[in-house]
Amino acid sequence: SMGKVMKPLGARVIVQEIITTLSLEARGAKAGIKVITSDDNRPRPTQGKVIALGNDPMLQEVGLTEGCIVTFAPHAGIRIYVEEEEFRSLELQEIIMITTETPEVV
What is the per-residue pLDDT across 83-94, written as a single tens digit (0 to 9) for each? Predict the structure, then answer.
């Protein structure tokens, strides 16, 4: 429930990052070892939920819809902050894959 409505322009989408169970700590826990990572070494989220779509028809053509899960490179896009919440603005060519199944969240 955001107070502000974000409307990206062109072939851009706004995503809310998802921290998946592929994080080092989770992998360590599964293996029964305690993994301690500094923030520098912590893998950045590379999946996000699309919450807003630009007006380029290409976005629909490739199958992007609000609510779908996309995969992108760790440093892709531009970080934006709205009411102290962090989002990422991605251009279409930065999106690697669209996933229909929601990943397990830590």
Answer: 888 999 999 999
